[in-house]
Write a structure and sequence with these properties.
three-stranded antiparallel beta sheet
């Protein structure tokens, strides 16, 4: 099981911990933050981009193609009803030209990204209140 803990630091800042690693999330100045970290939507796009990059580089290494300079750009639009990200785009840049022979396989490799597939196949998400006491059951007399 993967586990990440998020601790509130004050204002609109959070410390995010996974294994022995820490990152910070904040909001821009205009939203009451200090602009000292990415916003949660930016973190999600960062996760998608890093995952796509991992799968792209893995394919390029297996195909004995150059990996230096691989770059992934992820973009999204904000949508309403309910508030969410929409029209998410992953743009992959590879050093030099990737020959047509490898283009489809490279894109297929990126589409195997765990985060990409998690977004495509909506996961079950449960929201729970830790330590909440179950409501008392009344005896019917």
């Amino acid at each position: 099981m993967l586990e990440v803990t998020t601790n509130y630091l004050g204002a609109v800042q959070f410390e995010i911990n996974a294994r022995n690693h820490k990152i910070y999330s904040d909001q821009p100045l205009a939203s009451g933050g200090f602009n000292e970290g990415m916003t949660p939507p930016e973190l999600m796009l960062a996760s998608l981009g890093a995952c796509a990059g991992y799968y792209a580089v893995d394919y390029l290494k297996c195909a004995k193609l150059p990996t230096d300079g691989v770059r992934v750009r992820t973009t999204a639009e904000k949508a309403q009803g309910p508030p969410r990200l929409d029209d998410i785009r992953i743009e992959l840049e590879c050093p030099g030209a990737v020959k047509e022979l490898h283009q489809r396989a490279l894109l297929d490799a990126v589409r195997r990204c765990l985060i990409h597939n998690t977004l495509l196949y909506t996961p079950r998400i449960r929201v729970e209140l830790a330590g909440a006491v179950a409501p008392a059951v009344r005896n019917a007399a």
